[in-house]
Amino acid sequence: MDVHPPHAAIHSWRDFFVHLIIITLGLLIALGLEGVVEWAHNKHLVHTAEANLRAELQDNRKTLAGDLRFLNNFQKQMESDLSILSTYKRRIMPARN
What we know:
By secondary structure, this protein is an all-alpha fold. It has one helix and no strands. The radius of gyration is 38 Å and the shape is rod-shaped.
């Protein structure tokens, strides 16, 4: 940011304070505008992050649902295998008394 001195010489305290006030107001306006631009940029980043998080949550829910189906099927298969092994064990190895 460039701040240029006045083009004419300052002859009184009044001129000095007028120039000081003008420079101060100009800097405050510039900083205010920069703040608004940053706020808008940050707001855009928040919206983008929220959209990304929503998409990731949806993908995670789909993955979790698929994993639960897989685990349920795997559990049923394991129960079936255990039942077959139990039947096989009873046939091959009769109960000892």
